[in-house]
Amino acid sequence: MNSEKILLICFLTVFSLLAVPISAQQVLTLEECRKMALEQNKKIRMAKEDAQMACLTKKAAATKYLPSISLNGGYLRTNKTLKPLGNDLFLPVVPFNAIDPQTGEFNPASLQDPATALNTLVINPQTGQPLLDASGNPVFKNYAMLPSDKLVFGNKNSYYTRLSVNQPLFTGFKITEANKIAQHAENIAKENVVLTQAEVLVKTDEAYWRTISLQEKVRLANSYEILLNQLVADLENMYTEGIITRNDLLKAQVSQNEAKLKVMKAENGLALSKMALAQIIGTEDEDITLSEKAIDKDLSVAYSTITSENPIDKRAEIIMLKEKLAITESGKNIERSKFMPDILLTGGYGWMNPNPYNGLKKEFGGDWSIGVVVSMPIFTWGERKHNLNTAHIKKRKVQLELDEAREMIDLQIRQNRYKYNESIRKAELTQLSKAQAEENMKIAKENLLEGRTRLTELLEAQVQWENASSEYIDALIEIKTTRSELEKSTGEIYKYVGN
To answer: Global pTM?
Structure first.
């Protein structure tokens, strides 16, 4: 019983290990490849990162409406002391009655009183008039001295810090237009994601159908090799019986070797094509296995018309150019706003050491302040005018780009419709050529076996059949790729694009 359990466990373990590569080798359809590309393609992921950055930039622009708060600080060390007075000052002493009680200031008219003048000024005994100095000013009896060596600021270390709040009141609508630009830039980034997804889907379709084409051509090359192997085997028997010459056998063997070389080239091309598809959809090429019956050979399905439900103005390229046009309009408004003043409300609280509010003591002292700052350039040598004219030209240029894009998209739609219809007609003709080449090869082989034709004719018929089959495969693949291009140009492909 224990041995049976051990065998069961070993069987389950081996089965689970084998199940991993089996699931990894699942057959991928075009829809699955598209889904993987939309989820894992690096270009799409980069476009989404750009959209996220644009969203954050828009949020950053919105903060310009709000007040900015900053904290500044500094330290200053000086070498010399500050000495405001060059020499001692002598201040005249005036009597009490010379002070105007209403203003608290000195009243020179009070000195006209003889008693006041006699007690205040120096009187010349010879003239009885006040004594004058060299400058013609009266000489006072008493002076208060202000010594210059006492009025000295000797603090070598100074500190300051300030908490500031600034609120824009009016900037000529610069902030408003900057926010509009950020919004338009975000819209462009989002549309770029949609455009990138559409382009990746087209590339995915091309890589998918290229791989299917090479997969079909590998089978065709193998079939062609089998035909030549069978022919060589038949010719060897005929050569043994003396029906054909050795030269005929060698011709067939050369064609056999060429067929083997074609198989090798087709297999190498298929491997490279899988690698290209894997890079687009974000997986390993070893995990790619495509359906053996992916090509729909029913041409009646190809005649289904593609009508775009979205007008040209709904194309991502057009929407992006419209947003770009709006950005140039905001840029023009910003240049116009430079002719207007900028008004800023500012306020804050600052601390200084030495304290200027308390005798320059070595301590921090602070005070608050509030004010309005108005800034407006008066003369800039025509710079603002030139920049405004440049903004007008940029807007006209983007308008021309938008008009041209509409014309090119309309032309692209027509061209892709012609290419798509041509690919259908080409598939019909190559299908007929393939059938005729196959019948021709069958008749040539029968005639060779009956001795009514040469080996060269059969070899040529086989080459014609191989070429016709290859062209038929190319035509069927061209229907798929041109349809994908047509869907992109008409906007039909956008219905497959996820948000």
So the answer is: 0.77
